[in-house]
Amino acid sequence: METADKKTGITVRPQLPEAVPGFKDFGHVPLKSVHNCRDLGGMPAADGKHIRPGRLLRSASLHAMTPEDANALLDEHALVEVVDFRMSGEVDRALDKVGELPFVTYRFLPVLPEHRDTAEPPQPRPGIDAFSMMETVYRTFVTSREGITAYTEFLNGLLERETGATLWHCTQGKDRTGTGAMLVEHALGVSEENIRRDYLATNLFADDMMDELAKLLEHVPLMDKAADQAGAALFAYPRYLDTELSAIKEGWGSVDAYLDQALDFGPDKRARLRELYLA
């Protein structure tokens, strides 16, 4: 019988990844005000090469970014572009502090459909299995018109950046951000095994999410197994990535075909991406 985490009561524990050789600490960038920030530089990719450092960054939102962390991104990581995958309601509630990033391009590319009655991602509710809900959301990332448009513009935009770093994010830097990372990494020839490890690496930097989960459960009476249901939306689980890859393969046959047919990112563009981002 599984034991529960003392702080949150969660029993469906988030899986931690094995290390990726040459990719120290999964590229973690230790900022104080921007969570889950990672530089993909050093990750093994196609033809025995590695992703160049200081070119591809992923993180949670920048709404609480301090001037010190902004300066670190500008000076130490040569940030030139921010891509925001959130919905308009999320942006309105927690606006990125782009004013702290002069001369950095900001692109708003919402991945999820925005309905009239909501501009926020779906949240776990009593009576609904949150793990199944998250699987549905992951399918939406890669099959909806909005998701396909966002990731098409994101990938093709990377071809315009010959120098400097692009940082992409959602709210927690896990789901929509993780999907973006999966697509970039695949296009760069990263193995599926290492793509999975990088996806799960969010769980290594989840102390703030554990605190968020504990706070949520302290005052809000949820359904049975409340901790596991709330945790489903806060952590990275292999079943989510499996669902997403299955949706791609069901619709297009392979990730390569998805890049070609859905995202307008065929072999020539992938070759150019490798020229720009691998060493």
Average the pLDDT over all residues and give the rounded result. 89
Write out the CATH superfamily name: Protein tyrosine phosphatase superfamily
| The CATH C-level class name | Alpha Beta
Number of domains: 1
| C-alpha end-to-end distance | 47 Å
Q: What is the succession of H and E elements?
A: EEHEHEHHEHHHHHHH
- Main sheet specs: 5 strands, mixed
What structural class results from the helix and strand content? alpha/beta
Neighbour order of strands in the largest sheet? 1-2-5-3-4
Flag low-confidence runs.
none
Number of strands: 5
CATH-defined topology: Protein-Tyrosine Phosphatase, Chain A
Strand content: 5-15%
Radius of gyration based on Cα positions? 18 Å
Helix content: 40-55%
Which CATH architecture would you pick? Alpha-Beta Complex
Please count the helical segments.
11
Taken from the alpha-carbon principal axes, the silhouette is: globular
Keywords: Hydrolase
Enzyme class: hydrolase
Protein name: Tyrosine-protein phosphatase
EC number: 3.1.3.48
Throw out a few tags for this protein:
EC 3.1.3.48, Prot-tyrosine_phosphatase-like, alpha/beta, protein tyrosine phosphatase activity, 279 residues, Tyrosine-protein phosphatase, Protein-Tyrosine Phosphatase, Chain A, Tyr/Ser_Pase_IphP-type, five-stranded mixed β-sheet
Explain what you see.
It is globular and about 50 Å long. The protein is α/β, with parallel strands linked by helices and 279 residues long. The protein has one domain: Alpha-Beta Complex (Protein-Tyrosine Phosphatase, Chain A), CATH 3.90.190. It has a 5-stranded mixed beta sheet. It has helices spanning 67-75, 88-93, 130-143, 145-158, 176-187, 192-200, 207-219, 226-232, 238-252, 255-261, 267-277; strands at 38-39, 56-59, 79-84, 105-108, 165-169. The N and C termini lie far apart (47 Å). Helix content is 42%, strand content 8%.
